[in-house]
Design goal:
There is one protein chain. It contains 5 helices and 2 strands. The protein is mainly α. The protein folds into 2 domains: about 35 residues; about 100 residues, no CATH class. A two-stranded antiparallel sheet has the order 1-2. Helix 3 packs across helix 4, helix 3 crosses helix 5 and helix 4 packs across helix 5. The protein is elongated, with a radius of gyration of 28 Å.
């Protein structure tokens, strides 16, 4: 009988130990989940489109574009305007030029954001095709 009580105490102790491990792991998982960054809405300084982004991503984009948040479409257009040797002055000029273009463009459209998105997509396609053609020219054989 005494031996059964000892076995029962050991079993209870083992179960308690497992439960404690489970709760510890659960607490760690909750802490990790708490560290997931919240998403916030950022508005493009050029075209006015809004995107859901993390604050880390917003900061990274702002560092590249003179403290301004620029959407993906406008960033491609600005990169095209800056050219291969970006400097702070060239970047600021390209941002201002593109922002002015977007504002002019938006003033003449019924649905400016949709029209702008379509036009920017076309610009991105042309940019990709230009890069692709340059690459094939440099790798082709006579």
């Amino acid at each position: 009988m005494e031996q059964n009580k000892q076995k029962l105490r050991k079993a209870v102790s083992d179960v308690s130990s497992e439960i404690e491990k489970y709760y510890s792991e659960l607490k760690l998982e909750r802490q990790e989940l708490g560290a997931i960054e919240e998403v916030e809405q950022a508005e493009c300084q050029c075209c006015g489109l809004k995107e859901d982004c993390t604050s880390v991503y917003i900061t990274e984009v702002e560092e590249c574009y003179c403290g301004k948040w620029v959407c993906g479409l406008c960033s491609e257009a600005v990169k095209e305007r800056v050219g291969p040797c970006p400097s702070t002055v060239a970047m600021q000029d390209a941002l201002n030029s593109h922002r002015d273009f977007c504002q002019e463009y938006n003033a003449t459209r019924l649905n400016p954001q949709l029209s702008l998105t379509h036009s920017m997509r076309e610009i991105a396609k042309r940019s990709f095709q230009n890069r692709k053609s340059k690459l094939t020219r440099t790798t082709s054989y006579p």
